[in-house]
């Protein structure tokens, strides 16, 4: 058995405020989390929790992951944008083409996300959170497919996407050119080993797939910090 995607983690200067923003956008429920953080809980078994963990570091540069939110009509897209703005989002320009129909926003701490225009066939049936769009190579898409046991649902022109067999959002990687990595990512995955599994055995399996153990100054903790083949951090939690 493979690890499951337990959470997507945001480093946040104000975890409670950021959790309330995303709870409002996604109509989700929050709960206290470990490490003085707060979590937005998944609404069904196709999703993953979103954790907001405290940090003093300020955001610098674009994130390498962002949400693509779907819409069912132009009115629905405008309503999602308006709701997001009312909760504290703002419009941003990241060089998107004017002819593109999606709207690019940033949350209260500057984390980018997109509200996709209606009729997007790639995200059909994925739900409101259509995708977690990532900067990454084809090889890293293959790595995460094997790491999570999620099948590839797109593999073309060095762009890849995977999706849980249970459904839910896709995770996509856009291929080259990749953004230069200048520091620790603001968003990262938390993986949970199989129930009653062996954390070290899972770490060894991930290393065999191309991951590496890394030290980001975490000290003595019960999780293992690793990096995928593109150097993006993730954590392997203790079995629960």
UniProtKB/TrEMBL annotation:
List the CDD domains hit by this protein, alphabetically: VOC
Q: Which domain of life is it from?
A: Bacteria
* Xref: InterPro entries: Glyas_Bleomycin-R_OHBP_Dase (IPR029068), Glyoxalase_6 (IPR041581), VOC_core (IPR037523)
The VOC domain is annotated at 125-239
Instruction: Read off the Pfam families from this record.
Output: Glyoxalase_6
What PANTHER family does the record tag this protein with? Answer: CONSERVED PROTEIN, HYPOTHETICAL FUSION PROTEIN
Name by which UniProt lists this protein: VOC family protein
Query: Which organism was this protein described from?
Result: Streptomyces enissocaesilis
Species classification? Bacteria, Bacillati, Actinomycetota, Actinomycetes, Kitasatosporales
């Amino acid at each position: 058995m493979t690890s499951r995607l337990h959470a997507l983690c945001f480093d946040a200067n104000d975890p409670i405020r950021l959790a309330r923003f995303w709870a409002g956008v996604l109509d989700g429920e929050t709960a206290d989390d470990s490490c003085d953080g707060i979590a937005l809980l998944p609404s069904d078994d196709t999703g993953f929790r979103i954790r907001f963990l405290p940090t003093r570091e300020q955001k610098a540069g674009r994130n390498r992951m962002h949400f693509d939110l779907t819409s069912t009509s132009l009115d629905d897209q405008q309503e999602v944008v308006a709701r997001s703005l009312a909760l504290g989002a703002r419009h941003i320009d990241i060089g998107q083409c004017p002819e593109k129909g999606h709207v690019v926003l940033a949350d209260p701490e500057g984390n980018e996300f997109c509200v996709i225009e209606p009729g997007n066939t790639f995200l059909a049936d994925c739900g409101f959170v259509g995708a977690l769009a990532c900067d990454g190579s084809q090889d890293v898409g293959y790595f995460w497919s094997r790491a999570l046991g999620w099948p590839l649902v797109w593999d073309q022109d060095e762009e890849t996407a995977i999706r849980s067999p249970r459904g839910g959002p896709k995770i996509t990687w856009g291929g080259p050119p990749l953004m230069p990595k200048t520091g620790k990512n603001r968003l990262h995955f938390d993986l949970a080993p199989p129930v009653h599994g062996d954390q070290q055995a899972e770490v060894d399996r991930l290393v065999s797939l191309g991951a590496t153990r890394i030290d980001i100054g975490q000290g003595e903790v019960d999780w293992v910090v690793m990096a995928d083949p593109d150097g993006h951090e993730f954590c392997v939690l203790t079995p629960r």
